[in-house]
């Protein structure tokens, strides 16, 4: 049943233009960050780490969270059109399969975005003439950012499921992004999904987690968020009457 739902979701995306958006924003992030690095090389002297601080700032704090929100909103777009909610809720598939299939497809999109961004980062660094060794934390930034992005996608999928408007959950996500930045500055980042993305990507601090216990807490917090939010969303689909 889950496999059929996943196939249906991919069919929706086959001729979609969402991929253009998913590719454009990482490119813009790297272009802006690389330009800023190039113009301030006198101050930004740590080569790859300094470049990451620039491209990662635009990507992790602004463009990537927005991309997650857009991707999640698009996954529910067809359900909110016409009377499609009535059709999907009467189909012989479970609410869990519907939600989890969307989570998995969004997860694949996030992997694509992450891989594209990291490749662009490497290309940008080479074009700027960086010759030092790549950061040893690069793989950690990739995986930790991906984990945190899945947490945000669970939340954004739940919001997009509840709101018929395409723009409203994206706007809420943008507000959460700024809230997450504020909580991170106040050292409360471990308790909010959008702050977890900042921590995972090493956007504002490339020094990593201060201890192994903090890293374990990061993983556990993300896992709990994903499980709890997904269960609540599935329960809502089972119990609530959907306004089509």
From TrEMBL:
Annotated keywords: Membrane, Transmembrane, Transmembrane helix
Transmembrane segments: 20-39, 51-76, 97-121, 141-159, 166-185, 216-237
Name recorded for this polypeptide: ABC transporter permease
Lineage top rank: taxon: Bacteria
């Amino acid at each position: 049943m889950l496999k059929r739902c996943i196939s249906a979701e991919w069919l929706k995306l086959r001729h979609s233009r969402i991929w253009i958006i998913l590719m454009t924003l990482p490119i813009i992030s790297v272009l802006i960050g690389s330009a800023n690095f190039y113009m301030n090389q006198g101050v930004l002297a740590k080569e790859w780490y300094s470049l990451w601080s620039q491209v990662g700032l635009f990507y992790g704090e602004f463009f990537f969270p927005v991309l997650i929100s857009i991707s999640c909103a698009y996954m529910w777009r067809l359900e909110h059109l016409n009377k499609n909610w009535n059709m999907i809720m009467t189909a012989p598939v479970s609410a869990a399969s519907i939600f989890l299939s969307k989570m998995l497809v969004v997860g694949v999109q996030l992997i694509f975005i992450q891989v594209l961004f990291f490749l662009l980062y490497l290309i940008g660094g080479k074009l700027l003439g960086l010759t030092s060794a790549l950061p040893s934390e690069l793989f950690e930034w990739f995986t930790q950012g991906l984990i945190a992005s899945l947490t945000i996608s669970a939340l954004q999928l739940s919001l997009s499921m509840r709101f018929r408007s395409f723009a409203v959950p994206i706007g809420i996500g943008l507000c959460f992004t700024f809230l997450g930045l504020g909580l991170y500055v106040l050292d409360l980042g471990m308790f909010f999904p959008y702050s977890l993305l900042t921590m995972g990507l090493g956007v504002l601090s490339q020094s990593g987690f201060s201890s192994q216990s903090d890293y374990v807490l990061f993983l556990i917090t993300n896992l709990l968020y994903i499980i709890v939010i997904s269960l609540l969303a599935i329960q809502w689909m089972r119990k609530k009457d959907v306004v089509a």
